[in-house]
Specification:
Layout lengths: L3 E2 L1 E4 L2 E4 H22 L8 H20 L2 H4 L3 H20 L2 E3 L2 E4 L6 H23 L1 H10 L6 H37 L4 H41 L3
Helix pairs in contact: 1-2, 1-4, 2-4, 2-8, 4-8, 5-6, 5-7, 5-8, 7-8
Length: about 240
Amino acid sequence: MEHESVVLEFMGIGFDLNIIVSLIGTCALVLLFCYICTRKLSVRPGKAQLVIEYIADFVKNMISSSMDWKVGEQFYLLGFTLFLFIWVANMVGLVLILNIGGFSYWKSPTASPVVTLALSLLIILMTHYFGVREQGFKNYFLNSYIRPVPALFPIKILEEFTNTLTLALRLYGNVYAGEILLVLIASLANLAGPLTWIVGIPLQMVWQGFSIFIGSIQAFVFTTLTMVYLSHKIEHE
């Protein structure tokens, strides 16, 4: 079930071709989706425009539930882009898993811990940046790590690492497990030819539907936690 990835080396640094291709494909799909849904904007929206407006309202509600909208409005585009990117990244591996000659060339990029950890680290660093920008370094440090009890400083430092890890590993674990089980079900369905297809195909369809649900939930959870972490960093008390 496991296939190696082609590794490209540049200046002594290895780059996973699978991750590169799937990330580029995910970004292209997100851009294409946004273009199709917004190319014919009108007062009386069509079906495509209604879809993207629904997603936009959904993201707005996520932000509003974490912080005051007057403060959170500046993160609207971030939340919208993050939600769409993670959702599409979770879905692309359900549609196609490409393995050729023992090498993997396409799967969900979020099924790689490298991608999810990089994304999580980027989000945590971003929360620090906006916290310092909003409060100034001194007030940000005092409000985040010293107040209300200075003795909690070591725990709050540890919390920064645990937040990064849990944000990344929650997304990775759910997507990776879903794809592994899809491959396993497909392998079992081919054990005895058409005889096992009768059980394997319906089971595959059911698990794919469940994986779509889980992937959507994970995109929602990741975006919501991002907004929660941002709200904690920019608040003054």
